[in-house]
Amino acid sequence: MQQKKEKRFINIRTIPYLMVLPSISVIVIFMFYPIFKTFYNSFHHYILTRPKDYGFVGLDNYVKLFSDPLFYKSLNNTVIWTFFNVFFQCILGLLVALLMNTEFKGRKFYRMIVFSPWAFGGMLVALIFSYMFTGQTGVINDLLMKSGLIHERISWFSTGSLARGTLIFTTTWRGIPFFAVSFLAALQSIPGDYYEAADVDGANNIYQFWRITLPLIKNTLILTTLLRTIWTFNIVDIIAGMTDGGPNNSTMTLPHYLMTKFNEGLDIGYSSTMAAAMALILAVFAGVYVAAGGFGKEGDL
Amino acid sequence: MSNKTKKRLIRILTVNIPLVVLFIVTIFPLYWTIVTSLKPENQIMKLPLKYWPSPITFDNYKYIWNNMGFDVYFFNSVMVTVISTVVCTVVSLFGGYAIARYPYKGKKLTYLILLVSQMFPGVVLMIPLFEIFKNMGIVNSPYSLILTYTTVRIPFCMIMISGFVAGVSPALEEAAQIDGCSVLGAITKIVVPTIAPGLVAAGAFAFVSSWNEYVYAFCFLSSERYFTLPIGLKLMKGEFSVAYGSLAAGCVMALIPVILLFAYIQKYLVSGLSAGAVKG
Lengths: 301, 280
Known about the structure:
Order of helices and strands of chain A: HHEEHHHHHHHHHHHH
CATH superfamily of the largest domain in chain B: MetI-like
Low-confidence stretches of chain A: 1-7
CATH topology of the largest domain in chain B: MetI-like fold
Oligomer: heterodimer
CATH superfamily of chain A: MetI-like
Structural class of chain A: mainly alpha
Number of strands of chain A: 2
Number of helices of chain A: 14
Structural class of chain B: mainly alpha
Number of helices of chain B: 14
Helix content of chain A: 55-70%
CATH topology of chain A: MetI-like fold
Distance between the termini of chain A: 46 Å
CATH architecture of the largest domain in chain B: Orthogonal Bundle
Strand content of chain A: under 5%
Number of strands of chain B: 0
Number of domains of chain B: 2
C-alpha cells in the first residue's frame, strides 16, 4: 500500500498545491506583477506610441506630477468625493440595517427590493440618474416643483458644487446596500439576550444602541468603511457617465484624471506615476485607519 | 394618549414610514427608466411630464437593437461575462476546496494573497495590464477582458467557495475515496452537488460585477465590434444627448440579466459577506 502511494505521480501532498496553482498563478501574473510594473514604469520615460524615447529617468515623473496643478485639484476632489460618499452611505446603511433587523411582514421581499441597487452597474446608475436630473424635463425637478419645494428648475450640473452633490447623491443611492448588508450580518450575530438583559435593567433603546450595538459592530464598521473608502476612491464609471469630470474639472477625481490622461497620450510613464502615487496614498491611509481604529481589539464578534 | 397607542405611533414613525420612503427611493429610478423606455421618443422631452406611458411602444427597443449595435454589444457582454464567470468559478472551486480541506504549507500565504489582492485598485492595474495585453497581442479583443475579469473575481469567489466547502462535513468524500473514488471524482460527484447553490451564488457575484464593468473595457477595446454594453451605453450619451428613450431602453436591456440573477443571489448577500466581502 505504502509503495503504491509513492509510485503515484500525484501524491497526496502535492494535491492542494495543484489545486491552488491556477488561481494563485493568474493572480500573481495579472495582479501582483502589474502593481510591481506600475512602480517600475513610474521611473521611466515611456510613451507607448514613441518606443524609441524609452529610458530610465529617475524621479522626473514624480517631479512633474507634484507640479501638476490638475493633480492637486483632482486629489482634493477625490478626498471630498470619498469622504462624503462613505459618510452618507455608512450612516444611511446603518439606519437601513437597523430597520431591516426589526420584525415586519414581507421582510424577505422587501429586503430584495432594498438591496437591488447593488446589482445596478456604475454606468447604468450614472446614465439613469443623469437623465432624472436633467434641467428642463428631468423628473427630479418636476417632483420638487410639484411638491412646492422649489419654484424654478435647477440645472444640476451647472456649478461645481451642485454637480458634486448630485454625483454624491447618486453614488450614495447605489452604495447604501453594501453597508446595509454588512451591518445587517453583524447585527444578526449579536445574541438577543444582551438586549433582554438591558431591558430588564431598564435601559432605553438609544442607550442600548450606543452601549451594546455599536461596540459589537465596531470591527465591521472599520472594515466596511475601509473597503468602501478604497472602492469609492477608485470609482470612474459613475463620474465618467454623469459629468465626465466637468464642469471645469470640478468633479475630476484622481482615477478619472488618470484614465483620461492615459487614453489621451498613452503616456505609460507619467500615468504610472499617478497610479503609484494613488496606490501609496491608499496604502498609507489603510494602515493609519486600521491602526487608529484599533481593529481587532475588544468587541470582536 | 394610552401607552398602547403611543407605542403604535412610535412604531409607525420609526418603522412603517421609513420603510415606505426607502421603498419609493429605491424603486423609483427603475420605474422611471422602464416608463421612459416605453414612451415614444418625441414625448419624452415634452412638458408636462407623463408618469405613465401612453401609448406604450417598443420602438426604442427595436431601434437600439437594429440600428445602434446593441445586438452586437449584448452578445459581446454575454460572451465575455459567461466565459469569465465559468472559468472563475471552476478555478475557484478547486482553490477554495484546497484551502478548506487540506492542511498544507503556505496556506496562510494563499489567504494573504487573496485578501490583499481584493483591495487592489482597478485603475492602478489598468495601465500595466494594457501593456501586458499589448505585448501578448490581445489588447483590442475580448480575450483581454476575459482574462482580466476572471482574475480579479477569483479572490472573492475562492474565499466564498472555501467557506461553503468548510461548512460541509468531509465524511462523505472520505468514504467515497476509501471506496476507490479519486479526489477529482469526489469533488465533482459529491462536493459540487452539495454546495451547488453556493457555487451558483459565487458565480452570480462574478457575473454581476463583470457584466457591469466599464473601466477595463473602455481602456482595452478600440473596435466597436468588441464593445460591451456599458461602453455602448456611454457611447449613446456622448453621441445623442437627447435620445433618452433609446438610452432608457438600453439600460433596461442591460439590467434584465442582472436583476434576474440578483433575485436569486440576494439571500446569499449576507452569508457571502461573512465569507469575504461583496465588491461593487
